[in-house]
Amino acid sequence: MPDQPSHMTPEEFRRHGHAAIDWIADYWASLDDLPVRAQVDPGDVRRLLPASAPDVGEPFDALLDDLDRVVVPGLTHWQHPRFFAYFPANSSPAAILGDLLSSGIGAQGMIWATSPAVTEVEQVVLDWFAEALGLPDAFRSDGAGGGVIQDTASTATFTALLAALHRASGGDVRRHGVGGAGWRVYGSTQAHSSLVKAAMMAGLGEDAVRTVAVDPATQAMDVDALRAAMTEDTAAGLRPVMVHVAAGTTSTGAMDDIAAVADVVRDRGVWLHVDAAWAGVAAVCPEHRSHLAGVEDADSFVTNPHKWLLTTFDCSTFWVRDRAALTGALSILPEYLRNAATESGEVVDYRDWHPQLGRRFRAIKLWAVLRTYGVEGLRAHVRSGVALAEHVADLVAADDRFEMVTEPSLSLVVFRLTAGDEQTMAAMEDVNASGEAYLSHTTVEGRAAIRLAVGSWRTTEADVDRTWRALQQAAGRVSS
Ligand SMILES: *Cc1c(COP(=O)(O)O)cnc(C)c1O
Question: Where is the signal peptide (predicted)?
């Protein structure tokens, strides 16, 4: 017998485990003094690493040392209190510990039988979360529907499209592929790029996505234009299969009118998928649910606790009204996974709810977040983000060098310099390059705009004010 490798002893594991948690706590404490955006050039990080893996094992401490020396300078600090770019990707202490426990358990939850608790905890946590968001009962696991945790909203949208194709084709797509049936998918010009990618992955091709115009003022889907597009396509012999509604677009947080879209698709048998990746979690607050009005008519819904809601990436929660369409599209049963529980029909095998087979016990981190914050704690987090965004909007209104581009959407504020596009981009780049804060941009109706997304778990009003002062100084520099 060859020698066994030397695994850490339980005592070493405890010691290094404590050191790793200490490292994280120290890292967070140091963030305030670090530039938010990475300050390295391409290749800078690679150059600091040896060309090959060590032949002989090193102490774990050497890796922690390299985190400080090699990794931290090459990081953009997403947990920084002045990270306002894109959308937040909040971690939280509770979620990290939950994730760690999931790693320690190391179970595969591909089917119920491979670890029943992985499936059943996930079902209960998703039912809890659906209730906390005020989602319709139809999405709960005790009826025909149910929820599942996926890696990302992109995967959820892809999965929704596969289910939609299955339903619309009566199972034909599963057997023979999409063929040349003329399938059409609809989303607004502001729909997330994962919609086009889903059409590409499903074999429909990007031309199968028909983009629908938006109202220039609100950036929300023009529902009359959707109706006209679907009528025109149907008359031309094409087959509408899915409409993607954005409850909070990535660019400006625009809210498509779910109920109005539902009216258009209701009698056409078209799948209605609601992408609320960022804004959906705000529905933990009853006063921030209006953007989901009409969701009771949706066939599927996705939101990402891994953005705003304190659940370390990856955790994307996806619900369907009728799980049969999903499992019909994706179920597969190789001999080596045959088992009595599956055959009894009494259990859910999550393998049939997404593209991949293997799956982590992600529910623990969401369970840890829901239990330690409580729904009230999560509401407080969302409310503080929304209040800070209102504060930003007030600051914009009070300085005539700036103007709002769209109405604030929950915790996202989109504004620009009145001086013009070039000045807008230059002022933002100035702040980003200084490391004081990190903002990102978009274009709205062809004009440049700055996006300031509040909602990081570590952001205070002082951080927002400090960022605003940096922007004001930058505005002064670029206009003089
Ligand atoms: C962020 C975002 C996505 C993509 O989320 P992933 O989980 O990274 O795939 C999709 N749709 C909207 C509206 C988003 O804001």
Answer: none
The yes-or-no verdict on residue 76 having pLDDT over 90 is yes
CA of 153 to the centre of ligand 1 (A): 5
Question: pLDDT of 251-295, one tens digit each?
Answer: 999 999 999 999 999 889 999 999 999 999 999 999 999 999 999
Nearest CA to ligand 1 atom 15: 250
Instruction: Give, as one character, the DSSP assignment of residue 224.
Output: H
CA distance 172 to 178: 8
Q: Where are the domains of the chain?
A: 107-360, 369-479
Residues contacting ligand 1 via CB (< 6 Å): 87, 152-154, 192, 194, 246, 248-250, 275, 277-278, 304, 316
| Intrachain domains 107-360 and 369-479 with the same fold | no
Burial of 184 (0-12, 13-18, 19+ CB in 10 A): buried
Question: What is the CA 199 to chain-centroid distance, rounded?
Answer: 19
**How many A from CA of 304 to the centre of ligand 1?**
8
Q: What is the model's pTM? A: 0.97
Of ligand 1's atoms, which has the minimum distance to the CA of residue 304? 7
Q: pLDDT tens, 160-194?
A: 999 999 999 999 999 999 988 899 999 999 999 99
Mutate to test the pocket of ligand 1, among 192, 303, 309 (most ligand atoms within 8 A of CB): 192
Kindly give the distance from the C-alpha atom of residue 194 to the centroid of ligand 1, in angstroms, as a whole number. Answer: 7
Percent of the chain exceeding pLDDT 90 equals 94
Ligand 1 midpoint to CA 192 (Å): 7
- Which atom of ligand 1 is closest in space to residue 278's alpha carbon? 15
pLDDT score for 202: 97
Q: What's the 341 CA to ligand 1 centre distance in angstroms?
A: 35
End-to-end CA distance of the chain: 76
CA distance 288 to 387: 12
Could you identify the residue written with the tokens 């499992």?
Answer: 327
The fold of 107-360 is Aspartate Aminotransferase; domain 2 (3.40.640)
- Taking the C-alpha atoms of residue 447 and residue 449, their distance in angstroms, rounded to an integer, is 7
Closest CA to 199 of 217, 183, 216: 183
Nearest residue (by CA) to ligand 1, atom 8, is 152
Q: Point out the ligand 1 atom lying closest to the alpha carbon of residue 250.
A: 15
Confidence of residue 424 (pLDDT cuts 50, 70, 90): very high
Contact yes or no for 353/327 (Cβ under 8 A) = yes
Query: How far apart, in whole angstroms, are the C-alpha atoms of residue 52 and residue 256?
Result: 51
CATH class of 369-479: alpha beta
